[in-house]
Design brief:
The chain has about 280 residues and is of the alpha+beta class. The chain has helices spanning about 15-25, 40-50, 100-120, 170-175, 185-205, 205-220; strands at about 30-40, 60-65, 70, 75, 85-90, 125, 130, 135-145, 150-155, 225-230, 235-245, 250, 260, 270.
């Protein structure tokens, strides 16, 4: 990659921008891809491009982020070249009230790509955390600047146990059997090749319903007892019985009543045994 600085860790080579462009840009809707050395946040870069009128299909990947964001303002930390941190620009044509299902689609696509490339049993914790054996492998964050949707994806690839925030997190390298599945290039290609067609299907008639049906099958939260922290310190406890037609988690309380929780209302969702 032009301009890439030298690096000492041969186990963490830089991403080959030219090779990635040649492979990715053959898969609609992707039309432009940039690999940057370091940014505050790939989503910030893509959001600025969206506000400036950039068309759909931009992909920005960073080797390092100094201010990556997770859900609810949490900080996403990854050592340089240890993971995949990328954001994509989409301009959905479906009604805006269906846009909240798009990050669920991104989680579904990313988990599918990781399962196929690594053989790991990657599942989803609602709304869009990627889990392996209950440990967080990555996550999705979606924002809607200026009539567009920016989807950010973060995956721990070669991150070591010492580099992770705690035992609740993991990486592909820590989970894989040493078969080379912790190579970032094929993982990135697999994610984008899975996300692009799924997004186009989601945009078609009936695509949202089909996406939600597939998401429910992959979602490890459904069927579990959960504790949902709400703004202001309140919390909700019950059994997650499903995901509704706009992507909200449906929780059945002890009294039998059901409440649907949107992503904006939830601080965290955990199985009761993890509380």
């Amino acid at each position: 990659m032009s301009g890439q600085p030298s690096y000492a860790d041969l186990g963490r080579p830089p991403l080959p921008a030219r090779r990635l462009r040649g492979a990715v840009l053959r898969t609609p809707p992707w039309r432009e891809l940039h690999v940057l050395n370091e940014v505050t946040s790939t989503s910030d870069v893509v959001a600025a491009a969206a506000r400036a009128g950039e068309p759909e299909g931009l992909v920005v990947v960073a080797e390092a982020q100094s201010g990556g964001r997770g859900r609810l303002g949490r900080h996403w930390v990854s050592p340089p070249r240890a993971g995949l941190t990328l954001s994509v620009l989409l301009r959905p044509t479906v009604p805006a009230d269906q846009w909240p299902t798009l990050p669920l689609l991104a989680g579904l696509a990313t988990s599918t790509a990781l399962r196929e490339r690594t053989g790991l049993d990657v599942v989803l914790k609602w709304p869009n955390d990627l889990l392996v054996e209950g440990r967080k492998l990555g996550g999705i964050l979606a924002e809607a600047p200026g009539g567009a949707v920016v989807v950010g994806i973060g995956v721990n690839v070669t991150t070591s146990a010492a580099e992770l925030p705690g035992p609740e997190a993991t990486s592909v390298a820590l989970e894989d059997a040493g078969d080379g599945s912790a190579d970032r290039v094929p993982l990135l290609l697999a994610i984008l090749r899975e996300l692009g067609p799924r997004y186009l299907d989601w945009s078609a008639d009936g695509g949202v319903a089909a996406t939600l049906a597939a998401y429910r099958e992959r979602c490890d939260t459904v069927g579990r007892e959960v504790r949902v922290s709400l703004p202001g310190g309140a919390y909700l406890r019950g059994v997650a019985t499903g995901v509704d037609e706009v992507g909200r988690l449906v929780v059945c309380r002890d009294d039998g009543s059901e409440i649907s929780v949107s992503a904006g209302d939830v601080v965290h969702v955990r199985p009761a045994a993890s509380d």
